[in-house]
Amino acid sequence: MLTGRKLALTLAFTVLVALAFGISCKGFFVPPTLSSIAINPTAPQVGVGQQETLTLYGIYSDGSRSVVTSGVGWSSDTPGVATVTGTGSAILTGVTSGSATITASAQALSATATALVIGDVTSITVSPTSGSVSIGASPGQAFTFAATPGPPAYITTGNGGTLTITTNDGYITCTVSVDRNNNPDEVCTAETGATGPYTIVMTYPSATGGTVYSNTATLTVSQ
Length: 223
Known about the structure:
Elements lengths: L3 H25 L5 E7 L4 E3 L3 E10 L4 E3 L5 E4 L5 E4 L4 E5 L3 E9 L2 E10 L4 E5 L2 E5 L6 E8 L4 E2 L7 E5 L5 E7 L5 E7 L7 E8 L6 E11 L1
Parallel strand pairs: 2-9, 11-18
Antiparallel strand pairs: 1-3, 3-4, 3-7, 5-8, 6-7, 8-9, 10-12, 12-13, 12-16, 14-17, 15-16, 17-18
């Protein structure tokens, strides 16, 4: 049977062990630190007066990846071409045609992206002019719509272009995707029920107003 003195010593020892264990656990579970950051998209394109949201992704010391939402600084090296504002995600705004380097910083790390601002489009080319896709195939058929003057500027539904599918029967879907050359394309896929051929038309308004430029590609669907 424990005496009062021995009981007090035992309780004190138990408390010390618990404290030591707690400190040890806190030391073991160290919160991951930010290792690197990257801006998404890496090559944003906007028209004059248009906007796009930029997001900063972080890779942490434990290999995890997530959006950095606070403590982020943004800047543009040429605000006369494009401005950027925000403390987490940022808003890129096109001011005049040209390119600007966008820099994001967080926790002594930095990342850059080159923003292209599309000016007064005078024509649009499409490549390829025709393509085919099988029902359910992934990633689908990619079409690249390039505007002139360059250097070049790629037109998508993400930066002011309007894409029309004829016949619009709901079985063809076109979405913006970045290709291996880091250029944005419209990638079209077909669902069951699609027949084709379809015309894929991209239009873009002149920056000075009054004129809308366009070009057309043909999409054939196979079963």
